[in-house]
Amino acid sequence: MQLGSETPITLAPSAVASTAAGLRAWIASGACQSESGAFVAWVDFATGRLSYDYPEITGYALTFLASQASLSEDECSVGHRAAAWLVDRVRRGKLAARDGWDDDAVYLFDLAMVASGLLSFGRRVQVERYVEAGLELVSFLVDELASTESISPVSARGRPSGRRSWSTHGRPHLAKLVQAFLLSGQSAEIERLNRLIESVKSLQCADGRMLSHLDELTTMLHPHLYAAEGLWIWGSATGEADSLERARAAVEWACTHQLEEGGFPRSVADGVRSDDAIEQSDVTAQIVRLALVFGLGSRVVERSIARLKELACESEGMLGMVYQPASPNIHLNTGATLFAAQALAMAVTGAPVVIWSEFV
Question: Looking at residue 287, what is its pLDDT?
């Protein structure tokens, strides 16, 4: 499917902007932040119960805050609390993806997202210890890339993961590690980063899809789009045209699997979307963001933006994104809210698109 720019987004700009503002307000309010300062994975809509502290998502929140043209007092406050929590973890060597989960395995992707957040927010608010902690994590990643010819998603210096999924055995999503390296100024690692990007390119099929799953038939769209994001970041920062072309092809392939409701499914099996596909709002927001950075205007993108608006659920006068609309449990997902807030802010007519360093 080749998307064109001939069909403009016709949703009312004020409605899109209002939804983006409501999502940003939820992030800034601390509603999805625990007493520790960490951002949590999700909040139960019915009870208000917070889920677990999530370092990766906390890193994303810092990147999101750092990308704003101006920061409110509340946003500065939640950002400083989140950054302080991450710095304390780094100083104590607590690098697990989640405490007390998966035998405390260390995921390189998660560390890179934390590093990007600390570097971006630390420079934005001019707090050197945040930047130093981000650089420390990048140094850890440098050592990981140097220690083996074939990079693993899980650190060899920690305990092995007991899981078998795209996050522990897949490779496409690792393309997004380059953002942290680029932010750190690690130009000496250009050869290793090129090797990482080339390894991800080797997993892309002729139709644009990434082989993200163990059986090489099922494509999980979340890591597929992480790969596209990483390729776009790399191509945007370095001017490498092949990465940009491959990222665009990955987006265009994903766009062919839109659901009737306007959102996108969790996965695609053997290139064919299942009739009982599970819709996920994080995937929809990822597609909208990437379509907008490539200037891909189409009915597909317009319907996706409308779907994000529909899935933004009001909570105490603010908005959080429902993760899986078909689930009996309504969870307002922090990561999906961050992605959607950025996507919808870009979707407002005349709004600028984010640059690679601001991409959540």
Answer: 98
